[in-house]
Structure formats: C-alpha cells, structure tokens
Design a protein that fits this description.
Chain lengths: ~325, ~425
C-alpha cells in the first residue's frame, strides 16, 4: 500500500513547466517514443477489447430498432425511457438488496473459514482448502441445476424434508427465491473469497505471532490485533469482486424458470437478465445497450465508493 | 517436468480454439452464389432430428449440393442466434427452422425471402389449410410447414379408469366432471397441469372460436373479450378456481416427467407432436396413454385447434437460396418427406395424412392404438382464421411475468391477466412501428 501511495504522489516528470528547458530534451523525447513502442501492443489490445466495445455500445444506445421502420437515431431517448422504466429499477433494487444481505454473510463465512485454516489447529488443511474452493470450479449452470433439484419441493431433497417434518416450506416460492439464489451464490463463492483471505493471512510474518506469544496474547487477541488488520486490504478487494459479481447476476434467474414453475423470476429479475431479454427477445438492442451502460456506471460508482472508503480506513491505521 | 505440463496445458487450450476456427470456416465455406453446376454447400439450422435423415437421399439426387444440418438451439435460442447472424452479416444459414408464430416476426422486417419466387405457391394444395395459413404473411409464403401440432388430448387410460372414468371426456363439461373424479383419487392426482402455459390457453380459445389477434398489414387488433375467448377463459378459470389443475408442476420440467410416469397427471391437451416425446419422457407409462380429439365445447361438434408446429424458411441474407429451396421442397413435400415420416415426424401434408399406411399404423406405446388416424382427423378440423401478431415471440416471453403472480397467489383472474398482457402488447407493438389497439 505504501509503495502504491508513494508512486501516486510522484509528479509525472514530463508535466514540469521546465521540461522545454531541460538540458537533454531530445534524449528524453526519444526515450518516451521508445516507451510508446513498448506499450503499443498493450494499447492496441486494450483498445480493441475494452475501449472499442464500450464505444460501440454507447453508439448503439443512441438508436432504436423497430420491427417496422428499421433503425432510427433517437439521441438520448433510450436513457430517458430507462430512467422511467419501473422494470429496470425493480431489477436494480433487487440486486442492491441481494448485495446488502448476501455479500456480508458470505464474506463473514469466508473469513471465519480462512481464520480457522490459518489457526494451525486444523488437520488436513490442504483437503479442506481444496474442498471449500471446489464449488467455485463448478459452472453456475450446473450448480443452479443441482440446487434446483436439492431445493425442489415436488421430488427434491426439500420435498422429502417437508414430508418427514410435516412442513410446507417452498424455497422457490416467489418470496423465497432470492434467498435460495443467495444460498447458491454463497455456496459457490465462499471458497474463492476464503482463498483470498487465507493467502493474505499467509503473508503475515510469523515473527509477529512469536512476539505476540511472548507477550502472552491468546488466540483471540492475536486475531483482533494482527490477523484482522492484515485482512483489511483483501476485504476491500473481495467486497468489490462480490459487488460486481452480484450486480451481474444472470445464470441463476435465467435457468430457474425452466426448472421450477412460478418462482417469481421475471424476465427483468436482474438488470443483466433484462438487458439480455430486451436485446434478444424484444429486438431492442439500443435500449439494452443503454441499460448495460447505465448498469456499468452504477456498478463502477458503487465499487469505487467502496474502494475509496476501504482505503481511507486502511490508511487511518 | 513442470514445463512439459505447461506446454500440454497450452496445447489443450489452443486445440479447441483452432477447432472452432476450422468449424466456423467450414460453415461459411462454399462461397459461390447458388445454382449452376458448381459445388454448393448449404447450412440448415434445425432442431428437428428427422431433417438430417433426409440428407443422404437428397445429396444422392443432387450431387452438386452438400447439406450440413446444424442444431443451433431450439426455438428462442435459435431465433436469437439467427438475429445475431443477420445483424452481424455473417454466418447466416441457408435454411432455418421456425415455429409458426415466429414466421411473421422474421418475415415482416424483411428478414425472410419470399418463397413465391421459387414456386412455393404451387405446393399449397398438399397442406392442411390451417398450416398453410401459418406460413403465409400478408398474402406471401415465407416458409414451408415441416411439422404440425394439431391439438389433441393425450390421456392416461389407466388413471382415468381408476378414477371411474371409462371413456375419454368428449366435451369440456365431461372433462370437468372427470377432473373432479381424478382429483378425488388423492391430493397429487390432477387431470392436467398449468403454470401459465399461454399456448394451451390460446388453443382453448382457438377451439372455442375466439380470434383475439387480428392482423392486417401493419395493423394489429387485440381483443380478449370476444365470445369464444370469454367462454374458454371462463372455463379454465373455473378449473383453476376449484383446484382441479396442478399449478405446481411446470411442463417440460423434471417434475413433469415424473408425474407423467407415475400416472398422477391424467391428461395432456397438447400438440400432436407429443407422440414423439411422450414415450421418451414417460417410459414407465407405456401402454397407458391413448390419444383422442380435444374435448368439444358442444356435444357433437368437431372443431380443433393448433398447439405448436414448425416450418422452414430461407433468410433473405442466405448465400444459396435456390439450393436451399431445392432441399426444402425435398424434405417437406418431395421424396424426402416419407423418410422423415418414417423417422417419426408428424407433418401437415395431406398426401401423408390421407394415406392408409399412416392411418392404419398401430403404435405399441399407445396400447396399439392407430394414433395416426386420430391426429390426421385433428389436423383436418383445426379452426381456420387464427393469426399471431408479428411480435408474438416477445409477447409470449413476458406472459409469464404477468401470469406468474396469479398462479402463486390466486389473486386477480385470467381475464385480468390477459387484459394486462394486451396493454403491454399494445405498448410494445406501437413502439415497434405497428398500429396496435
């Protein structure tokens, strides 16, 4: 962190007003040109795979496609329509609520597991590490199908459970579906986040623990004073990853309706799903592009806010 | 050691990439415009497995045309892929499978070639009238029917018998009485399931004489209050209100397969194409199912409806239209038709439906019933004059959004759902440049 900050405050050499009077301007310019050649391959690829698609989406978002009359330029009308579209805001609200509940639970889980693995009191660390990480390697499509069967009330595991206990719970009733999806996502991503936390803990110098032991600190004091502060940086990273991930939720609500009837999943359940359906079923590519860009802007804004806040806290130390 | 593993991994990663590149190169190959003596390769998108069976015979008769059949996904997935290909301007197939309702969606914006140019009009008399109507948009033919979905009632005779129903319900009133008896067998027994199946509801309306969509050029009129529609909707509302329909099991799901297998769903009022998938989905119920005409609204009537069915059209951007039409005619009308029928396709061609071989074939799965005769009759009595709006593909995709809360909470009614659906359709249709009211 220190390193990054130091390089941030170093003023760029070329921006100095004295640059023209620099004793060796020619050499400097040549050097910067050589630099350009070196970053050219990166720059070209970056432009091709990041800049161009975004610009193209922005371009598309200014048009309206119609079955009759073809494509017309409509300026920012798609954006105006989007801000008044209750279905869009319904989806945005849903991913926000989902993020607020699911992400803290998942990260607490992941952190607890990482601390447990790092406590050196657990046998078979490698085994547990691999097993907990394993769900991350299962494609979301497969995991959704799997959980769909597990939680199904007609013939699934949950059905048998209801039968045995005489209850009538339905994980895919419209009010519960989001919780069930939260369960699937937590299952899939806890291991991934645990691994990030675990590697951060591994980077803590062992001498600190020895010093703590000499001072007579118990395990909980060590966690509070050494381990949790060490996790701060990775916590910011995992929160950002998780926010981006949940804002882009797509697979689960896309597949569920084919398995379960009337689970409350609409065609605009999440913004991503809505964009997909607009573009491909409704032939409204321009509107979908506007939606995608607005959603990207919201995601970036939220992630950036988290980052700034997280880093400020980290530097308060 | 470590290096060699990396190299192997790299190879594993690269091989599929090159493989894909090779495939896509192949699909676009054969660049010349169709016709003539030159070797032409056409690409066909189809999720109907019987089409592929017609390829060897066609290639033997037309050595200069090579046919490649690709499954680009079913229904919506395929339409999305086609829209993508058309928009990208590359990889457009020469022949594409469409459900009937999707034909106007592609035909009206000019994405499909008018098959009249190739002489398709002359084939009209071979098809049952309703099927021909399905592929005609504003007086022009844009596709040829390849399979047909006359609505029929598939019933589990064993379950009905257990419930004390000895013959299949011939009218909807009898159906209602049978439903009560079936449900009396136990909580999990129902005469049918419905979780918001718009195609089923429309087939009821269709049969009752309702014509909610009227399309005239760019004008679309939607009305769910005509007499037939009101009658059909009120009937199904009564079935739902009295809890005679399973609203938990959705069609085509794993749960559905199980309920068909264990006999707890007594009937399926669906397209005739169910004959080909039912044996796969419900192998344990072999010998129990039979087919009958849809129950009628009035004793002694004989009116049917459609539920599904598909056709093949040629995209306007297809590279080899003439060769594509040759193949299309071959497997929907010519010598390839029988090959497909033998492989299980249910086609709307009169030459097939009227043939003795088709009508007299006993099918083991259906307890030796001559299924063909029933379905041929169901095809011929389909009520005419039904139209789908050009944006039906979109409309059906959002129907579930509106209907789903009803099926879980029981609030509002089917009529109100249809009214809401109509409002959404009007809004969308007008945005899309149609005049909808």
């Amino acid at each position: 962190m220190d390193l990054a900050r130091r390089s941030d405050v170093t003023p760029p050499a070329t921006s100095s007003p004295d640059a023209a009077r620099d004793p060796a301007p020619a050499r400097k310019r040549r050097r910067s040109r050589a630099g350009l050649a070196f970053i050219a391959p990166f720059g070209a690829l970056f432009a091709l795979v990041f800049i161009v698609p975004i610009l193209y989406a922005a371009f598309l978002s200014l048009f309206q496609e119609r079955l009759l009359g073809g494509t017309t330029f409509v300026g920012f009308a798609n954006y105006g329509k989007l801000f008044r579209d209750p279905q869009f805001w319904d989806g945005v609200g849903r991913v926000f609520r989902f993020t607020l509940v699911q992400v803290p639970i998942m990260l607490l889980f992941a952190m607890a597991l990482a601390l447990a693995l790092d406590s050196r009191r657990v046998h078979g660390i490698r085994f547990f590490r691999a097993t907990i990480f394993l769900p991350y390697a299962v494609p979301a499509i497969v995991s959704t199908l799997m959980w769909g069967f597990l939680l199904g009330v007609k013939y699934g595991l949950f059905g048998s459970l209801n039968h045995a206990l005489g209850t009538d719970l339905d994980p895919f009733a419209p009010g519960n579906t989001l919780i069930s999806i939260g369960l699937m996502v937590t299952w899939a991503f806890t291991g991934f986040n645990m691994l990030i936390f675990y590697s951060a803990l591994k980077a803590v110098p062992r001498e600190l623990y020895e010093a703590a032991a000499i001072d007579g600190a118990n395990e909980f004091q060590i966690i509070r004073a050494i381990k949790l502060p060490a996790l701060r940086g990775s916590l910011v990273v995992t929160i950002i990853f998780s926010i981006i991930g949940t804002f882009q939720m797509f697979n689960e609500p896309q597949i569920l309706p084919t398995m379960v009837a009337n689970s409350g999943v609409t065609t605009y359940y999440t913004p991503n799903l809505y964009a997909y359906n607009l573009a491909f079923t409704g032939s409204q590519q321009g509107y979908a592009a506007a939606l995608a860009l607005v959603m990207a802007a919201i995601t970036i804004a939220v992630a950036y806010a988290v980052q700034i806040r997280g880093l400020r806290n980290a530097s308060d130390q | 050691m470590r290096l060699s593993r990396k190299v192997r991994l790299l190879c594993a990663a690269l091989v599929p990439m090159f493989g894909l590149a090779a495939c896509s190169g192949g699909a676009n190959g054969g660049g010349d415009a169709g016709g003539g003596d030159e070797q032409v390769k056409i690409t066909v998108w189809s999720w109907d497995g019987t089409v592929e069976k017609a390829v060897p015979g066609f290639q033997a008769a037309n050595p200069n045309i090579k046919v490649e059949v690709v499954n680009a996904g079913s229904s919506q997935d395929e339409y999305k892929a086609l829209d993508n290909a058309i928009q990208a301007g590359s990889g457009v197939p020469d022949l594409v499978m469409f459900e009937y309702f999707a034909v106007p969606y592609f035909a009206i914006p000019g994405k499909l070639a008018d098959l009249g140019e190739f002489g398709a009009d002359k084939l009209k008399d071979d098809y049952v009238p309703a099927a021909w109507g399905d592929v005609t948009v504003n007086g022009k033919v844009y596709a040829l029917p390849s399979d047909y979905g006359p609505s029929a009632m598939f019933y589990n005779a064993a379950t009905l018998k257990k419930a004390g129903v000895d013959k299949p319900p011939a009218t909807w009133d009898e159906y209602y009485e049978a439903a009560k008896k079936v449900h009396a067998l136990g909580g999990d027994h129902y005469i049918a399931q419905d979780t918001g199946d718009i195609f089923f509801l429309l087939s009821l309306i269709w049969q009752a004489g309702g014509r909610p969509f009227k399309v005239d050029g760019n004008k679309v009129h939607i009305d769910f209050t005509d007499e037939g529609t009101t009658k059909a909707v009120a009937f199904w509302q009564k079935m739902l209100d009295e809890g005679l329909v399973n609203t938990k099991v959705t069609g085509w799901s794993d749960d559905w397969n199980r309920t068909l297998n264990d006999g707890s769903l007594a009937t399926q009022t669906m397209g005739g194409w169910l004959t080909s998938t039912l044996p796969e989905r419900a192998p344990k119920a072999a010998g129990d199912f039979r087919v009958a005409l849809m129950p009628q609204w009035e004793q002694g009537d004989k009116v049917g409806a459609e539920n599904g069915g598909s056709s093949f059209g040629i995209p306007a951007a297809a590279p080899h239209k003439e060769a594509a039409f040759k193949f299309l005619e071959y497997f929907t009308h010519g010598a390839g038709l029988q090959t497909r029928v033998d492989a299980g396709a249910f086609v709307p061609n009169k030459s097939v439906l009227d043939s003795e071989a088709f009508r007299n074939k006993a099918v083991d799965y259906f307890g030796g019933q001559k299924v063909g005769a029933v379905l041929a009759e169901a095809s011929e009595i389909v009520g005419s004059g039904w139209q789908y709006p050009p944006f039906f593909e979109w409309a059906r995709s959002i129907y579930g959004d509106i209907a789903s809360p009803y099926y879980t909470s029981g609030k509002v009614s089917l009529a109100q759902i249809l009214e809401q659906w109509k409002q959404r359709c009007i809004q969308y249709g007008n945005e899309q440049g149609f005049q909808v009211d």
